[in-house]
Design brief:
This protein is an alpha+beta fold. Helix content is about 30%, strand content about 15%. It has 4 helices and 4 strands; from the N terminus they run H-H-E-E-H-E-E-H. Helix 1 crosses helix 3.
Length: about 130
Amino acid sequence: MREQAPILPTVNGSADPFGKMDKADMAYALVQLLGLQDLATSFDPNRDIVVNYRGEELVLADQDEIAAEMKGYVQLAITLSLVNVEFGIEQGPFAVSPTLTARFNADETITRAHYALLASRFYTQYLEN
């Protein structure tokens, strides 16, 4: 018999039904919904979390702010386009060309509008066909 953790992470053993959900929690929930817990937990938390942008792999600038036990879920959610990252451009005062950056913002609270976007994307990519 296959065992899988709950769809939502627990807080002190409780489902915390009135708590706020952040972006890392949403990555966890969406990966769990697809039944990919084993793949997510096999991710080495010492590896970089990356996003592919037009063939270039960018390391998340804020990956150190993601809890080790959530890193595999975040990486998988990004890879499967379940959640998105925020891209930016940095350029030093003497740099010839800018550098593209990516941030996940794991602690960002998921608003109803953000949830609607993520649920719609999830449905379209994985359940519609």
